Amino acid sequence: MDGIERIRGMSGLERETTARVSIVGSDLGDRAYSVITTAFAICIPLLLIAIAIEIGRAAWPALHQFGFGFLTSSEWDVPAGKYGAAPAIFGTIVSSFIALVIATPLALGVAIFLSEFAPRWLQQPVAFLVDLLAAIPSVVYGLWGIFVMIPLLREDVVPFLRDTLHLGATPFFAGPAYGPSMLAAGIILAIMALPYISAVSREVLRAVPRSQREAALALGATRWEVIRDAVIPNARSGIIGGIILGLGRALGETMAVTMVIGNRAEISSSLLAPGYTMASLIANEFSEATSDLHLSALMAVGAVLFVITIIVNAIARWLVWSVSVRNEA
Amino acid sequence: MTTGVMPRSTRLNRAKRRGVSGMMVALTYLAAALATLPLLFIVIHIVKLGAGAISVDLFTKMPQPVGEAGGGMANAISGTLILIGIAAAVGVPVGIGAGLYLAEHKRTPLANTVRFLSDVLNGIPSIVMGIFAWQLLVRPVGHFSALSGGVALGAMIIPLVTRTTEEMIRIVPNSLREAALALGYQRWRTSLSVILRTAMPGIVTGALVAIARIAGETAPLLFTAFGNQFWSTSLRQPIAALPLQIFTYAISPYDEWHSLAWAGALVLIGIVLIISIAARFATRSRFGAAVD
Predict the structure, then answer these.
(1) Which residues of B touch A254 (CB under 8 A)?
(2) Do residues A235 and A226 touch, judged by C-beta distance below 8 A?
(3) What is the pLDDT of residues A20-65, one digit of tens each?
(4) How far is CA B281 from CA A126, B166, B205, B274, B275, in A?
(5) How many domains does chain B have?
(6) What is the Rg, in whole angstroms, of the alpha carbon atoms belonging to chain B?
(7) What is the pLDDT of residues B177-223, one digit of tens each?
(8) Most buried one in A1, A206, A270, B126, CB count within 10 A?
(9) Domain residue ranges in chain A
């Protein structure tokens, strides 16, 4: 009975072949094929579970010893054997926040430009150049950051911010500016997150039906009002998804940040002070970690990063997915 | 338009709205210009600073100790190619298999779960992948190895290959499947020798794009491949890699190492570019086949 129900839902040819197969008996090759592809598919959940278990095992000694205080203590003192991840968590949040503040308007601007205003001959080259930003290896960004961006920041940008814009009086731009800093990390991250945000935004903007734009134009809206009132509201959660996806990239970015952030476990209100992110802390101290506890503390930082990025990505995917489902319906 | 009969305030209002609109459009042009600037900047610097240090020695000689002139990155370049090879051998078959499953089981609970988790896997930071491979493959044996580095990179390409395989199989016309079934092919032969074969150029493109993306990864290699001053092709020994070498040279205090780092960056970008161009060619042949 069950088999007949299944066959009813199929297309003509599929029905006939299935009927033939089920008369002959299930083909061995078909069964093997189905088992093998299913096994490959199951590899993905298994891999994620394995990652969670292995990282949990590596992090356990430190998490067990410090408990919840591991997240809130700001004391990362290797010789004293005290490990608190708060400075790294703080640095990760601040540098990613700077990155989003810089990258979001730019990425949205590019996405709107490409989906609405760009002349046809400009669309492909601009999209290609922005996408190419995602293809440059992280370590190359770091190299460029050390030798080009940091000197530029130190000699031109910071004096401009402090003296011309008089931001030196605020706590955010106070203190000595050596070069490697939270600000440098934020800017590098902004460049690296930009292609991800712009690619997703471009897609969701294109997914908004043409009729929405035409309706707004027919009501006398200007070109900008069409975007603001008809296009963006339809694409909003997808755009937010893209921004969160960019955030996910920025949170876990390692090499470029390690090379420009200065690597110091302190919480400072000044963006010009050196700092740490979770990823750069692990990368920077792994090779010099000699005690088991130090190693485990680094792995525990990795575990925290793992959990945070999983949550952030799950939210982003869900938002992007909800837009595509709504526009299909 | 009917501006003549409108009250003055409406006309002013319209002028203002037009002004705002023009300004916002101009701002998106500005954003596009600003967003393409960093790329041009970076590429110009790499070519300018890297090209001067490129020589035959770079590809054929081993690294020299500080202070000694010359020296190359032959071991790092070969190491990177070996790591890419292991990653492809680990990641591509799993990705294609999982992609086949997803394309043939569109809405089953397992397919939905796998699709979602594959996206989640794609978002896991590369350094976390490194920790995973270290704990799994380095710690138990007590030494770093090329194999562990390749596995870390391979795990990173699985979600990318899965996604493109699924998409490429989806666009194969259903009539092809039905024709094969009508000729009496079994389902598995239909899937492998008709559907997968038709979709193959697109899948190859996707796999190459994924490989190009992990070719420059550094963070996972810190815990796994680790780097090696000497020539090594053994999978069980630590192995040098171009990104690791660039990192070491970049943070060193020596000028000659800095210029080697730029040269290395140019070579690395060259490798990524060659793989990406190969990917484009694979796609082109698909369109060629479609026209025939």
Answers:
(1) 125-127, 218-219
(2) no
(3) 444 444 678 889 999 999 999 999 999 999 999 999 999 999 999 9
(4) 21, 20, 8, 11, 10
(5) 1
(6) 26
(7) 999 999 988 888 999 999 999 999 999 999 999 999 999 999 999 99
(8) B126
(9) 2-65, 70-328
B31·A113 Cβ contact <8 A = yes
Amino acid at B7: P
In a domain, B209, yes or no: yes
Decide if B39 is inside a domain.
Answer: no
How buried is A168 (Cβ within 10 angstroms: 0-12 exposed, 13-18 middle, 19+ buried)?
Answer: middle
Count the residues in chain A: 329
Domain A70-328 class in CATH: mainly alpha
Which of A33, A134, A252 is the closest to B191 by Cβ? A33
Is B53 inside any structural domain? no
What pLDDT band is residue B14 in, cutting at 50, 70 and 90?
confident
Confirm or reject contact between A106 and chain B (CB < 8 A). yes
Please give the C-alpha separations between residue A146 and each of A150, A175, A185, A193, in angstroms, as whole numbers: 6, 20, 11, 19
Whichever domain contains B138, its CATH number is 1.10.3720.10
Distance, in angstroms, between A166 CA and closest chain B CA? 25
ipTM score assigned to the predicted complex: 0.90
Hey, of B1, B16, B36, B83, which one would you mutate to test binding to chain A, going by the most A CBs within 10 A of its CB? B36
Structure tokens given for A156: 């031109």
The CA angle B60-B61-B62, to the nearest 5 degrees, is 130
At A82, give phi and psi (nearest 5°).
Answer: -110, 130
Supply angle C-alpha A120, A125, A128, rounded to 5.
125
Examine residue B2 and state whether it is found in any structural domain, yes or no.
no
- How far apart are the C-alpha atoms of A130 and A282, rounded to whole Å? 30
Query: Which residues span the domain enclosing B129?
Result: 59-291
Residue showing tokens 């990641």: B91
